[in-house]
Amino acid sequence: MRRLILQVSILAAGLLLLFAGCASAPAKGAAGGKEEIPEWVLNPPASDDQYMYFSGSGTGAKGDLAQAEETARGAVIDEIMRYMGVRITSETTATAKASLNSYQTDMTQTLKSKSGGRITGLEIRDKWTAERSDGLTMYVLARYNKEELLKEKARLEAVFQEMIEAVSGPEREGNAFFEQANYYQAALKYIEAAGAAFKSEIENAEIKFERNINQAKDALRGISIIKLTDNIEVFLGEDFAQALAVKVVAGIGERDLPLADVALRVSYPVIKATGRKSIRSVQIKSGAKGIADFTPPRPEFVGKEKITIALDLGDSLETLEMVPKNLIGQVDALEQIVLKKKVIVSFESISKAGAIEMGITIFDLDASGNAIALTETSSGILEELTRANFKVRSLPVAVTSINGRTDAQVAAFLKSNFGGELKRAVYGTARISDHQQDGDFVIIKVTGSIKVVELESGKILLSVTKSKRAQGNNTSTALSSAFKKLGEDIAIYILNNLR
Fold this sequence. Notes:
Elements: H1 2-21, H2 39-42, E1 51-60, H3 65-84, H4 94-112, E2 122-132, E3 135-145, H5 146-179, H6 183-199, H7 205-221, E4 223-227, E5 232-235, E6 244-250, E7 257-258, E8 263-271, E9 277-285, E10 291-294, E11 303-311, H8 314-317, H9 325-340, E12 342-350, E13 358-365, H10 376-387, E14 392-394, H11 407-418, E15 424-438, E16 441-454, E17 459-472, H12 475-497
Parallel strand pairs: 5-12, 13-14, 13-15
Antiparallel strand pairs: 1-3, 2-3, 4-6, 6-7, 6-10, 8-9, 8-11, 11-12, 15-16, 16-17
Helix pairs in contact: 3-4, 4-5, 5-6, 6-7, 7-9, 10-12
């Protein structure tokens, strides 16, 4: 403010010299009459408890009062902006530039208005014009409510700092976490800073983006996930006896510094309603000791499977999805490090039914229901069940003992002939249900109806009907493939459903 007073005082002194040397062109007021120079032109008012004062002057061609006043208002606005202390530099963001331009426009509109403007507390308090033979100069005095002025000053400063702080703030936090070996939280902050950098217009944005991406990679390299459980056995349809557990550490060993509140993504297999396997996932977090555990749902399938427990930065990495092409390589390199931060826990689901002796008697039939010289359906079932360690064998049975008989008749026959050797039996037939020619290929569809019976009680434990298509260069190849694949599908159904 002292600088403003000095500038205006010098200007006023020059004005007095001008008036003294130009007797033919005396200073006049707006109405053209002689008028004393107002005190505020020579000595602008100092700020008081309620207002701060700003003055400015502008010149115009002879008779062009509007031009002089517009220039004077611009000088007042310049003084206000100097007081605000914000200026556009190479680091100024588009948001800050827009806010500053809007504020200056609002001040211009306010100072033009006679009935109040867009900015609260700002008004022109006085005007004075010095007219000469070659033109005129207007002086404008404005006052600004101090409370409102300071409020706007704080707002603009915050806007100018906002995007720079959006990068430097998280980076500072990331550095602090890194020094504490809290590498997961450090990585999150570095990624946040990188995301803010590429979205901003701050100076050296790409350099700051690259720096934070590299710092995030360094932090991630320091994280390890340690398996605490593995090679678990569980029975089909029963709960896991123990949870799957891992430990997240800053280092490479179980005794290294534990990392708490680390997000992990668990991906595990399930059986859908269609009978097919799919992968589901859920997020878990490590506790104070760095340990995270997960209990999978009861398995509805038989066999060996794997569960993946991986570092989860999904939400954080989404902030980098829209990076420009020249930055994609750096993001890919970061994601590759994340993908390596995982462990795989193995488990095996075992069917208790596999320990029960069971026989198989299934016949392949043509479209008319007559037996054919193939045993592919039976072979497919036998191979799959054997692979799953089921105690199974083929039964030497004539087709007439099975085909066309009722379940009660078949159960009685099997009990009579094999009841002393076996506890259960798989029986049924599979027949051709469709035959098509498609160019050089033959397409055959087969359908099988298979049941599992408990020999002692005659109770049907499981019943399944399935169809399968296969193609081949000739009928024989297509037929053999269709029956074999049908048997494999039926065997998998038996494995996953027989208790």
